[in-house]
Structure to design on (706 residues):
């Protein structure tokens, strides 16, 4: 659908801490790869820099209204890490900005690929991204001084659309199996509903194997070198998706190496899934921050908006700089490469491809 | 406290499927180790064989009343695996028997040790065992056709007693750190309460380091060979305990090798944490079932009731038979050792210690 637009607007939302620095480097690389499209006006960048913890605290809102309005003028968004207040922090108890953005822009599918070719790992996670344990996360109740309650909500529509996304992805990419992960033996009503919907949908895809596991044992299966190769596409409620994708990313080098795509019908947002490292900024070391996660998110963004060739080049360059040339290992340390130098390596590598 | 009793009654509850067969082998070993105490009457065994899926289905209850009454005449219980009905099974939608037993006997602490000396892993998990996402697990609501809801409940008393157990264990065993794992950034009210209580209690133990992590990133940290050695004692709400202990057990050889202690003020129950494998029974192969998990649970039981010397011998024998002599590897297969032969190996090994 992006091909039909006169201009695709890419919002760049730096976030907090090291966010603006590393997101800026990712933008440099995207500009380099999209030079022609920028010149012809097919693509434009738009900086959205109001999503900071200071602004959010002032507005006492996860996303201030004016920032949300700006985000809604973009088609796709590249987002750096944002600070989520913890108890004891000087900020009011506002919701996490990425969780709020997922809800506000209805980004229902959190898609996270994890690939470790040499270990036979090639997984794609479809995490439901707008409901489950997250939807009323800030609306739990203190029944009295001693009893606290939280709520989980699962809807038919919410489960169907993520299940559909997972099965369609499997079908289009020739994957043989879709695996649903819940805790439906205990959390019977919501997880039971999610599982039933996935099971029903599986009947529409007779060429794809379907199986289901409980989240506890699945965290063990991912480690089992004999079994983990059997899995290809996962579909999971929000909380289990959150948990299992962090575990999975570890095999690939940690959450710092993983990008996360948040896809809705109308908008899509691509983000780094590490923290904002405020201490690096305080100490003036943010120029050394490792930009590879947000650069990877940028590559996912490129693929999503139809620049597949450019995306592939960027993925390849990330692999070469990270694994073969080990350039990535020195980034993030004061004695190593800066974010800008790392971005330079990436662009030089792309030129040599 | 067991030393003060005239007689400690050990209930043996075989459960379903392969349960009675493997639990019987564990009982043989305990009888062997406790021969003197049995002769003097300090210890007695009591068979509780009514906890079968057939009886539970007939009573339409997770634990039939007469079985519960029998269990309550025991001081400690050794429990085999029980079948939990899944949708589509011929049984009514009754609750899991072990979850029900944890609630009915108020076994609030689920203690799971995981140890892999050659990898520097020596973890003890204190999983809250009676509330959280489990307490109203069967009482979710279908708000309407399209909206399902589940509830999580955390109480002050429930959180305090598990936190106390973890810190006291750490103190008594010279552990340097207690780590709390929640998802308090999202599930703010219940997990927030749990975390606050742990944080407060940490102040009473200034000699012990306290840290807290979110469950998503913690599943990654357990895999990180550099970081995982830093953790010693974990304290977690029910659901995260369920998830993280299965992952952790994988490093030690899988959930089949782990035993689980469910401890309350009045009762304690020790169980295998694998399934009941009904198919092995149907095919007449239950004599080959691997009894090592329930034997390990038996060793934990011995330690708990004050037979530390016997417990240590059994742990040692399990290690020798499992890791050094690899006897355990052939068990569980039709061509290998039977459960009874494995139990024989264990007893022969103990005699040689
Ligand atoms: C930062 C946090 C709120 C977020 C989540 O829980 O979804 C993160 O862990 C993620 O996976 O994107
Ligand atoms: C069988 C299941 C209900 C149980 C649980 O979820 O607690 C099991 O996974 C465990 O960890 O003992």
């Amino acid at each position: 659908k992006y091909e039909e637009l006169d201009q695709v607007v890419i919002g760049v939302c730096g976030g907090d801490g090291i966010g603006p620095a590393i997101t800026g480097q990712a933008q440099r690389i995207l500009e380099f790869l999209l030079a022609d499209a920028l010149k012809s006006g097919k693509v434009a960048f738009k900086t959205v820099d109001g999503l900071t913890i200071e602004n959010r605290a002032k507005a006492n809102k996860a996303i201030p209204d004016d920032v949300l309005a700006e985000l809604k003028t973009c088609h796709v968004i590249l987002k750096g890490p944002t600070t989520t207040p913890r108890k004891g922090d000087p900020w009011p108890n506002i919701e996490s900005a990425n969780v709020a953005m997922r809800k506000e822009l209805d980004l229902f599918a959190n898609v996270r690929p994890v690939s470790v070719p040499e270990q036979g790992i090639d997984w794609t996670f479809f995490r439901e991204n707008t409901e489950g344990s997250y939807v009323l996360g800030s609306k739990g109740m203190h029944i009295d001084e001693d009893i606290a309650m939280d709520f989980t909500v699962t809807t038919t529509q919410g489960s169907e659309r993520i299940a559909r996304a997972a099965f369609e992805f499997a079908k289009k990419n020739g994957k043989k199996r879709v695996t649903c992960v819940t805790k439906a033996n205990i959390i019977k009503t919501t997880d039971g509903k999610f599982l039933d919907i996935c099971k029903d949908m599986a009947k529409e895809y007779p060429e794809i194997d379907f199986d289901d596991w409980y989240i506890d044992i699945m965290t063990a299966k991912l480690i089992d070198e004999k079994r983990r190769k059997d899995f290809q596409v996962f579909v999971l409620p929000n909380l289990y998706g959150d948990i299992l994708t962090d575990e999975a990313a570890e095999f690939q080098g940690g959450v710092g190496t993983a990008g996360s795509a948040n896809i809705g019908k109308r908008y899509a947002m691509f983000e780094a899934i590490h923290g904002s490292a405020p201490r690096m900024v305080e100490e003036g070391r943010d120029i050394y921050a490792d930009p590879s996660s947000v650069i990877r998110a940028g590559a996912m963004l490129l693929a999503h908006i139809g620049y597949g060739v450019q995306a592939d080049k960027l993925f390849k360059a990330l692999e070469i700089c990270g694994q073969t040339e080990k350039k990535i290992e020195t980034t993030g340390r004061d004695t190593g490469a800066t974010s800008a130098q790392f971005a330079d390596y990436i662009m030089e590598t792309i030129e040599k491809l």
